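User: Okay, second chain of the day. Same drill as before: sequence in, structure tokens out.
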Amino acid sequence: MTTALIVIDVQESFRQQPSWADISAPDITKRITRLVDAAREADHVVAWVLHTAPGSNGPFDPVNGLIELQPGLKRREGDITVLKTSHNAFTTTNLGQQLMSRKVDHLRIVGIRTEQCVETTARLASDMGYSVEVVIDATATHPLPLTECSGVLPADDLIARTAAALSGRFARITTIAEVVASWRP
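Assistant: Same drill. Structure tokens below.
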């Protein structure tokens, strides 16, 4: 089994928005760095996925210079990097082809917007035949407004809902400690 760590949307675009103050894991880069270091030590593939919205004139528009990894995260030669314009990491990128060329069949997915881009990528990856894990404590999200009823769904509830929806159906739910321990020789 060849494994890839897929890091989704841990980019400056999110950190520069006012909603960053409400992110569920402000230390997300430290959490991700721990996994990236362990993946590299185990000689696994690391893939960086960054969201773009060309022409939006917002934080995800490449012309604004925020489509870059958050400070503390470092790409290396040999890593995969793709820019996406959809919620999942596959539809608008060549990520699938790059993973296939490296014979990757197992994905560990982490990143920002647990219930959106992380979950959507996990579902699609499972449908594509990958063995999928979501490292749930290496994901982050914001509280989500419920516009129809004027409420707010807390970030922790969103993360728990995502874990429940994916677990046993589309992905195995794991933790940073479990993953790091499994990658030790």
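Strands lie at 3-8, 45-51, 80-84, 106-112, 131-140, 144-146, 151-153, 172-174.

User: Thanks, on to the next one.
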